[in-house]
Design brief:
This protein is an alpha/beta fold. 42% of the residues lie in helices and 19% in strands.
Length: 211
C-alpha cells in the first residue's frame, strides 16, 4: 500500500501537481487543521498567499460520526433525505448548525490571529486538505470559495476514494488527488505519521506563509 511519510511530504508532492494545473494569481486555502500543514508547500510552490477556510460537519443526534451535511461561512449544505429518514427535529438541526457556525467564527479568528482574510476575487482559489473521505466538508469549503468570486476553484488533497473524487470534481474547475485507492477506510491509513495537528501549529504555519 502506498503511504506518505507525513503531511509535509504529502504537501511537497502535491505542490508540483497543483502547479501544473494552475497558472496566474492564486490563493491557497488550507482546511484546518491538517490541511493547513499540507497547504504550506503548495503555497510556497505557487508563491501564493495562504489562508484558511473552516468548514464544519453537522452531526446527527447521538451519533457524532454521522454527518447530516456541512457548513462554512454563509454556506449550508444539508442532506435533506437523511434528515427526513432519521426524523431529525428542526430545533435540533438549527441548534447544531448555530453551534458549528459559532465554532467556525471562533476558529477562523484564532487561526488568523488578527490578519485580514486574503481576497479571492480574480484569483484561483485552491482548497487543500490532508485527505478526503465522504467529501462533506470539502463541498462546503468549495461552495464558500466559489461565492467569493474567484477566477476559478481547485480542490487538492493527497488521497481520497475515487467515487468521492469524481463527485467533488463536478463542484470545482480542477481537482488534484493523486492517490485514489480502491480500498479506503480512513485518511490516516495512507500516512506513516498522522498525528493530531494543533491550533498552535496552524497559527504558526499561517504566520510563516502570511502574504
Amino acid at each position: 500500500m502506498v503511504r506518505y511519510l507525513d503531511r509535509t511530504e504529502a504537501g511537497e508532492l502535491l505542490a508540483a501537481l497543483v502547479a501544473a494545473e494552475v497558472s496566474g494569481p492564486a490563493v491557497v486555502l488550507g482546511v484546518p487543521r491538517g490541511g493547513v500543514v499540507v497547504a504550506v508547500p503548495v503555497a510556497r510552490e505557487l508563491r501564493a498567499p495562504l489562508d484558511v477556510v473552516v468548514p464544519r460537519k453537522v452531526c446527527a443526534p447521538g451519533n457524532p460520526e454521522l454527518g447530516l451535511g456541512a457548513v462554512a461561512p454563509g454556506v449550508r449544505l444539508l442532506d435533506d433525505r437523511l434528515i427526513e429518514r432519521l426524523g431529525v427535529r428542526p430545533e435540533y438541526l438549527e441548534s447544531e448548525i448555530a453551534r458549528e457556525e459559532a465554532e467556525i467564527v471562533r476558529r477562523t479568528a484564532r487561526y488568523r490571529g488578527g490578519r485580514p482574510p486574503v481576497a479571492l476575487a480574480g484569483r484561483t482559489a485552491i482548497v487543500v486538505d490532508d485527505g478526503v473521505a465522504t467529501g462533506g466538508t470539502a463541498f462546503a469549503a468549495l461552495a464558500w470559495a466559489r461565492a467569493q468570486g474567484p477566477a476559478g476553484v481547485v480542490f487538492a488533497a493527497p488521497v481520497g476514494p475515487g467515487d468521492t473524487v469524481a463527485r467533488l470534481g463536478r463542484a470545482c474547475d480542477a481537482i488534484v488527488v493523486p492517490l485514489q485507492p480502491s480500498s479506503f477506510f480512513a485518511v490516516g491509513q495512507f500516512y506513516e505519521i498522522f498525528d493530531q495537528t494543533t491550533d498552535e501549529e496552524v497559527r504558526a504555519a499561517l504566520g510563516v506563509a502570511a502574504p
